[in-house]
Write the structure tokens for this entry.
Amino acid sequence: MQIRSAGASTVRAAAFDVMRRHGLTTMFANPGSTEVPLLSALPSDFAFVLALHEASVVGIATGWALAREQPALVLLHTTAGLGNAVGALATARVNRAPLVVLVGQQDRRHLAYEPFLAGRLDGLGGDCPVCVEQPALARDVPGAIARAAHAAATAAGPAVVIVPMDDWEAAVDGPLEIAAPRRLVRSAGVDEAAVAALAAYLAELDAPALVAGAGVAGQPAWEALADVAERLACPVYQEPFGARAGFPQDHPQFAGHLPAGRSGLRAALRRHDGVLVVGAAAFRQYVYERGPLVEQGTRVAVLTADPAEARRSVAELAVLAPIAPACRALAAQLTARPASRRPRRRRARRPAASAGGLVAEEVFDALAARLPADVALIEETPSTRPALNARLPARSPHGFLSAAMGGLGFALPAAIGLRMGDPGRPVVAVVGDGSSLYSVQALWSAAHYGVGALFVVLANGRYAIMDELARRAGGTAPWPPLQGVEIGALARGLGCPSLRIEGREQLERTLDDVVPGLAQRAEPLLLEVVVDASDGT
Ligand SMILES: Cc1ncc(C[n+]2csc(CCOP(=O)(O)OP(=O)(O)O)c2C)c(N)n1
Ligand SMILES: [Mg+2]
């Protein structure tokens, strides 16, 4: 169906109408000359959020979109802007964050001459975007933005629209046809056959287990999956290296994170004659190992809302359906099993006594003792992620978030965007010192816009995980340690207050001061916590 935009005299005015209709009135941007015709005299109902590098622009928008569960609007400057943003767009895709990404282009009238700033933009983002719109005519721009909003929401990822700078002021004569529906309503229903297939599979199992993935997002899905788990009285594992926690990790049936290699996975699931993976593919891996994913006696089924996850799963059954209603319907079909023994969870080891300095585990313990259950914790601590997972269980949706594609430079901006999108929520990013440097300029945006997130930087003075990988590979690393970097000084240079923490007592005192006020904070704070290097095991 097509609708008509009445009254708008320029493409720009019609585009603003479309943006308003889709809730795209907060623009995360780093602008250039090709975007000035759009931005000059921005209507007063639009908010503009400046970030000082495109990885920060997209990271902040990603956090905002995840917090709000609706598309965020991004504006980038031709080749340099889109090029700088590609890694962050890949993260947004894998983390399933809906973004509408406008990319400015030189003037159509002389593009053929390749003027200064002309972009070869089509294809620059590879297959990270869920779609790329290049409007054939200026008057197609508003429709392209509407389709991008639908694509971002339905395919859960960044949708790119490339707009030549002269398009915005192009006149619209007469009513403008928008080649997109005004509203796109997705059915949230689940049919009986899909639920029956899952119920029949589970009924054949004597010792089932569940695996929760990042696709189990939001309170309704968490509650519905907990219902399924309680009916089955079975352990629930978290997928390894996922984008977010998919199950309350303080639930008595939570059994920990699955190993990310095949041998560990086989061993972890050996005692189960079948598993149901919910909100993930079967199975997410990290380092390649030989052999099958599971033992022959372990059957596998998958429930996911993501067609690509369903397609690549090694499973006898994959059901494609929205998670929350599917789990609700499934729970209603299951007869309660007698409670089994509580899963054995590996207890977090006591931190190794160090020669005076703090270790990361002590920092996690100090946070665990103080953080509220509704904290949104964003992780980017490569050498100590397992220790963080063991010590800081996610207790609410977004209780654990991470860059699922592995690209560093996400945690700082994502924490800022999450807090902007959900201003009353305590938000903490725990970040390695190396990781903190990829999008450090995001701290300026946090300071400028009064975003009260807490950044805990684990300053071990090195790329500890990389050093360890080099050691395991039998050699030494050619890269130097990160000597001479003062993250706290960088933060202050960007307007973000910071404190350097050098011992347990100072850490605990500072957290006692700061954590109770996290929900109300109106300015960011960075803690540069000096820690010994961990070996990443
Ligand atoms: C954008 C990007 N560049 C490089 C890497 C490779 N990489 C993975 S971990 C790491 C070092 C991280 O150092 P730090 O944050 O200090 O954590 P630590 O290992 O010390 O815990 C690097 C460079 C990456 N994942 N993403
Ligand atoms: Mg480090």
